[in-house]
């Protein structure tokens, strides 16, 4: 199992449940916790709601889920990263090429809850998250 897989396997578990090996790795990097996603405007499809999903480190980590304007959904995804920054991207799942709904970068501890407002393809979303070491 790679370091990243080991850490991502932590996911919903508490820090007290980390193995000694996991704790050691954690000291070098940071955690991204995405709490929830809010649709300010869902308009990436011609008709109906967006089929929103979230990508982190090139992988789909949540979704897709139906998001209509005004919808709020819990995400509750925890991921580890050890680079200086990583990108969180939102997309609308489509039959062809998926629509990009915007991205934001995480790089340092947020000292509590943070909100990223992103927009793209006619939609706007707020993502509530936290970064901590
Ligand atoms: Ca679309
Ligand atoms: Ca769609």
Describe the structure.
The protein has 133 residues and is mostly beta strands. It has one domain (29-132): Sandwich (Immunoglobulin-like), CATH 2.60.40.150. It is 10% helix and 53% strand. The chain has 2 helices and 8 strands, in the order ααββββββββ. A 4-stranded antiparallel beta sheet has the order 4-1-8-7. A 4-stranded antiparallel beta sheet has the order 3-2-5-6, with no helix packed on it. Strand 2 (50-56) and strand 3 form a beta hairpin. The longest helix is centred in the first third of the chain and has 7 residues, at 20-26. The radius of gyration is 15 Å and the shape is elongated. It starts with a helix and ends with a strand. The relative contact order is 0.24. The protein binds calcium ion (2 copies). One calcium ion binds at residues 44-45, 92, 94, 99.
Number of DSSP helices? 2
| Secondary-structure element order, N to C | HHEEEEEEEE
Give the helix/strand class: mainly beta
Q: Average pLDDT across residues?
A: 88
What is the CATH topology classification name? Answer: Immunoglobulin-like
Largest sheet, in brief, is: 4 strands, antiparallel
Which homologous superfamily in CATH is the superfamily?
C2 domain
Terminal Cα separation, in Å?
22 Å
- Number of beta strands: 8
Specify the CATH class.
Mainly Beta
Q: How much helicity do the residues have?
A: under 10%
- Structurally, how many domains make up the residues? 1
What's the architecture, going by CATH?
Answer: Sandwich
The small molecules bound here are: calcium ion
What Rg, in angstroms, do the CA atoms define? 15 Å
Morphology: elongated
Strand content: over 45%
Please state how the strands of the largest beta sheet are arranged side by side. 4-1-8-7
């Amino acid at each position: 199992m790679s370091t990243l897989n080991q850490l991502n396997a932590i996911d919903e578990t508490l820090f007290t449940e980390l193995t000694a090996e996991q704790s050691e790795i954690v000291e070098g990097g940071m955690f991204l916790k995405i709490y929830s996603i809010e649709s300010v405007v869902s308009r990436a499809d011609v008709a109906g709601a967006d089929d929103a999903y979230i990508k982190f480190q090139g992988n789909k980590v949540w979704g897709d889920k139906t998001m209509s304007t005004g919808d709020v959904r819990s995400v509750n995804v925890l991921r580890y990263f050890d680079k200086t920054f990583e990108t969180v991207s939102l997309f609308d799942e489509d039959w062809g090429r998926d629509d990009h709904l915007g991205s934001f970068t995480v790089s340092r501890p947020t000292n509590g809850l943070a909100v990223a407002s992103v927009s793209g393809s006619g939609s706007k979303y707020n993502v509530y998250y936290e970064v901590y070491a």
